[in-house]
Amino acid sequence: MEDAGLRTWMDQMGNVHGRVEGMNPSADALLIGSHLDTVVDAGIFDGSLGIISAISVLKVLNITAKLQKLRRPIEVHIEQGPVLEGIGLPLAVVKGIAGQTRLKVTVRGSQGHAGTVPMSMRQDPMAAAAELIVLLESLCKRPKDFLSYDGQCNGFAVESLSGSLVCTVGEISSWPSASNVIPGQVTFTVDLRAIDDMGREAVLYELSDRMYQICEKRSVSCTIERKHDANAVICDTELSTQLKSATYSTLKRMEGEIQGDVPVLMSGAGHDAMAMSHLTKVGMLFVRCRGGISHSPAEHVLDEDVWAAGLAILAFLETHL
Questions:
Q1: How many CB atoms are located within 10 Å of the residue 99 CB?
Q2: Which of 80, 93, 121, 212 is buried most, with the most CB atoms less than 10 Å from its CB?
Q3: How far is CA 74 from CA 39, 53, 94, 241, 250, in A?
Q4: Collapsing DSSP states into helix, strand and coil, what is residue 300?
Q5: What is the per-residue pLDDT for 154?
Q6: What is the CA radius of gyration of the chain?
Q7: pLDDT at residue 44 above 80?
Q8: Confidence (pLDDT) at 58
Q9: 245 plus 289 within the same structural domain
Q10: Are residues 105 and 152 in the same domain?
Q11: What class of enzyme is it (predicted)?
């Protein structure tokens, strides 16, 4: 950043800042960036791509733009999904970031010997947990089958969940976790996301109600804890329009002709822009990644796609000079 002409410092939380002083102190400021940290055993592009793109663009511009009145953060990030690769385009504008809820589900039954307790007499929390997980998958794949009441449910259209509702059980454990023991307790996590917050809450209500019914039927107990909630974020319309225009002109300049319009995607992953939305309007640009793979050492982005992202942000910034 210093090589690009930025003044740098680190705050008490460990955030690294780079600032270019502006010619007009009263002008609105633009914040461009992402995150330097990532998950364990991840790739090299998650987060860092947005940092490098921002530094490179400022170095090319060699401008002064005072970061005094924060209004419009821009984040460049790999898509972390397969859509852009599927349609054959390197960039997309993000229309919003899905809200998310994380649950911890604990199912308690009757621990026993694997060889001596008849199947008809078991209170097996593992079998119950398996049925709960299949219920979760069915509910997220076909929410209409569970939520539809004349096309509406609690003030939202069930159709609003289409394409954005996803759910994952990423962690499961049992006690005492022995091959010859019917477990006494099983714990698993649920990660549920959707762009419609009311729809997400309706799914959670339905899921919890049906989980309790299944556990009662199987004579096991069940507790459901909400461990995390984050509301959906809708990207600023004006900012997204400007990013879309800059992206279109960049792709046209690079490829000559592009088929159709610049894609506009919803993000199922959480991003730094999500946290910044409480302070200001936000916008995001997605970059194609190979196979839609992220949070993995196999994560990969083409050099020409990184170049395209940099040029698009450069074109966007030039409209604000």
A1: 23
A2: 93
A3: 22, 11, 11, 13, 17
A4: coil
A5: 55
A6: 24
A7: no
A8: 77
A9: yes
A10: yes
A11: hydrolase
